[in-house]
Specification:
hydrolase activity (chains A, B), 9 strands, WH-like_DNA-bd_sf (chains A, B), alpha+beta, homodimer, two-stranded antiparallel sheet, about 250 residues, Nucleoside Triphosphate Pyrophosphohydrolase, Arc Repressor Mutant, subunit A, elongated, hydrolase (chains A, B), NUDIX_hydrolase_dom (chains A, B)
């Protein structure tokens, strides 16, 4: 089915099923190949990349809609999900579908509730749905141009992550169960958008007493196998409750 | 006009003018008589108190709607305003108007965008509109029972304030230009929901180097006139950008 036909067919159903004017956009972060990555996709008739999103059923809690949208796209519910901001400017979304008929669902004014998600990379199986021509992880550096105000939504998500780094279990949800100190540092550098001094970072993170050094080390590299750590969940949670002190 | 007639008259206009299903609720804080206060009101047909709110015009940015609603209620635009969360559970609002006809605007499912506002007390002139029977400031301690999920909205606003205390100009916007150290401490205690040690608080806040001690002191009390301070706006803003370090 060509994309125009698909939109027209789906529009009738969408007007029936979803709350008009309201959408959800998801900024899904993951840590992969030593860099902080975000899930982006391309709609079939669009040149620009965008964030995955969806709509809220008339019979559904907004938070449940976000979980559903995320599951449809990533194949898992096992993801830390948090609402961070609602984007409500006039003309933020209308233009992207201007070549279509006014009755098309997607051509409305949408006010979009932003959720960020933290996905442990191995849990996710990306799903390319019938509306998209591409879906992929992309390093948060050198992102391609985004459609609508999706760049603004991404930026706000990253700023929120930065502000919440000392109060929310962000590292815990992005890293695999066992990780090395350089990986943890890379993650913090990605979120903070700056390079950190290795010695200072190690000293600080160890001083928090939230990590457990494991008996094993990572196999396989050419160099000396690096030590592996995991979060001491109990200590980590109680430290976050108080807030990790200090700047990075 | 009785309240039912008023709702019916306004409903026709509201369906025309506003985006359905979407509302705004405002948690307006102020610092007054040595305590952190919040603006609450009572709708004419309701027994419980609630937060001031309103709707978004079809031709209006969401943020502009929040500014308009706040101005209508407080008589001023000169208020620090920030969106903090969107509340979207099913049945969060519908029950409050169940005795009215289904076509009444207020009886819809509403998804409500929460804004918190920080109002310098002397700037505000409370406005009692035709829908309300009472509007007042109330200390955040011992709040009365709220309608709908307004208590949850208030709690989330206060938690947000707490998390943002080190990064946002919260003190600056709640206090008058000149204030005493005990007033600043009371404000912090209100936001943090706990008593602070006087000596530690003074030492910490002075160490940030964000206050200017004024040449004058407060007149009129029975005791020794307390010193007055104001924020050094430049230093304060640059300290907030980095984030005030440490816990209270």
């Amino acid at each position: 089915m060509d994309f125009k036909e698909l939109l027209e067919k789906q529009s009738a159903e969408s007007w029936e099923k979803y709350i008009p004017t309201l959408s959800i956009d998801c900024v899904i972060f993951s840590f992969y190949e030593n860099s902080l990555q975000v899930l982006i996709l391309k709609m079939r008739d669009q040149d620009l990349w965008g964030l995955p999103g969806g709509y809220v059923k008339k019979t559904e809690n907004v938070d449940d809609a976000a979980v559903r949208i995320l599951k449809d796209r990533t194949g898992t519910e096992n993801i830390y999900l948090q609402q961070f901001y609602t984007f409500g400017n006039l003309n933020r979304s209308e233009k992207a579908f201007e070549q279509y008929h006014d009755t098309i669902w997607n051509k409305q004014r949408f006010i979009s509730i932003g959720y960020y998600a933290l996905a442990e990379h191995s849990q996710v199986k990306l799903v390319l749905d019938e509306y998209s021509s591409a879906v992929q992880w992309h390093s948060i550096e050198n992102l391609p141009e985004f459609m609508m105000d999706h760049r603004k939504i991404f930026d706000k998500a990253l700023t929120t992550l930065r502000e919440q780094l000392n109060n929310h279990p962000i590292g815990y949800n992005l890293l695999p169960e066992k990780f090395t100190m350089p990986e943890l540092q890379k993650l913090y550098e990605g979120i903070l958008g700056k390079r950190l001094n290795r010695g200072n970072f190690y000293r600080k993170i160890l001083r928090y007493d939230i990590l457990t050094k494991l008996e094993e080390s990572r196999k396989g590299g050419a160099h000396k196998a690096p030590d592996l750590y995991s979060f001491d969940v109990e200590k980590y949670n109680s430290a976050l409750k108080e807030g990790l002190k200090g700047n990075w």
